[in-house]
Specification:
The protein has 125 residues and is of the alpha+beta class.
């Protein structure tokens, strides 16, 4: 029988190899944490409630939080019981000093919807 080390060779890593890898990983982690920490505060929104008014209308109530007075656009849609989208609307909100606002969006639907869903709320261009 032959020795595998003699047959295939061995790779001898220097003693500083794994501490170097650990130091690089820690540096990348700290840089990522700093990058995330210095990002602008995002616009957040959530559905507070919805009301199916009739077969062709849904009202969606949104809570929107914007840390800076920005113009924003929110897109909401209405879904039928088979999960198909039966209506969609994008509303523009002008910049105000209020950080938290609640808005109501009326969506016209092609047939009866069972829920209202928030798609996005982003800063307007």
């Amino acid at each position: 029988m032959t020795d595998l080390g003699a047959r295939y060779g061995t790779s001898k890593r220097p003693r500083w190899f794994w501490p170097l890898i650990a130091a690089i990983g820690i540096t990348i982690g700290i840089a990522f944490a700093a990058w995330v920490g210095f990002q602008d505060k995002p616009i957040t929104a959530r559905v507070w409630g919805y009301d199916v008014v009739d077969d062709h209308k849904v009202t969606v109530k949104l809570d929107v939080v914007r840390p800076d007075p920005l113009d924003i656009e929110c897109t909401v849609y209405a879904q039928a019981d088979d999960h198909s989208i039966v209506g969609e609307k994008t509303v523009e909100l002008a910049a105000t000093d209020e950080e938290e606002i609640r808005i109501e969006v009326d969506i016209e639907t092609e047939r009866r919807a069972v829920t209202g869903v928030l798609r996005t709320c982003v800063a307007a261009d």
